[in-house]
Amino acid sequence: MQLSGKACLLILLCSFTVSAQQVPCQLSVRLESDQQSTAAGSHNDTSTSRQSYALLSALLAKSGCQVKMQALPAGRAIKMLEDGSLGVMVGMSETAERARFSYFVGPHHIERMVVVGRRELQRSVADLYQLLSWPGLISVAEGAYYGPKWQQLLQQQEGLQQRLFYASGNQQKLAMLASDRVVATLEDEAIIDELLQQKDLAQRYVKLFVLHENPVYFAISRQAISSDLYLQLQKHWQHMLQSGEVDNIKQNF
């Protein structure tokens, strides 16, 4: 019997949670929705995604916390992180806006954001301006951060918003590309490299250029945990790095 991506993650997360009659805390963590099209494969099943949740689970377990997975659209999840009804999001860039309502622990991954498009664009598209000269929609995840160049372009190019399809998450964003409903999408290179191992996708799509690179963190709601627990988690993360536990977990994927 083949397990779904969500089921595999549940088994993985449970393996890192503490065994105790009384659990001091339980934090909900956002997952990609399995209900979205898997035309490009499952985002949750990628090594990068599973690695992130394994690291988070190991970290929280050191403070006696359990994780509760919750499939949510990205934009809604960010709002819930702000009001404390969601505990954690993985793979989050640190920005001044997000720092208002989030503690950042990590980084747990270096995200290298690339533009992926139809193979016929390969010889004529090497930057954002060339991409925008082509007709068609570009899929992005709602609420995602794609770096300062992208933010500046959003402000300068009045017509850019009409060119964007705001997906509810990475799963839908990639499915839009795989179903030829958009000409390009923006995604972490580690994720794309894994998905492009599928022969069908590799024949049709290619990485066009690098848009942005930055570390990403576990973003934990300031409304969901105390400052003392935050400092404790920071300490545990540094110990995991120094002891080699982070590297050991990553090697499993």
UniProtKB/TrEMBL annotation:
UniProt keyword list: Signal
InterPro entries named in the record: Solute-binding_3/MltF_N
Domain Solute-binding protein family 3/N-terminal: 54-252
Signal peptide annotation: 1-20
Annotated protein name in UniProt: Transporter substrate-binding domain-containing protein
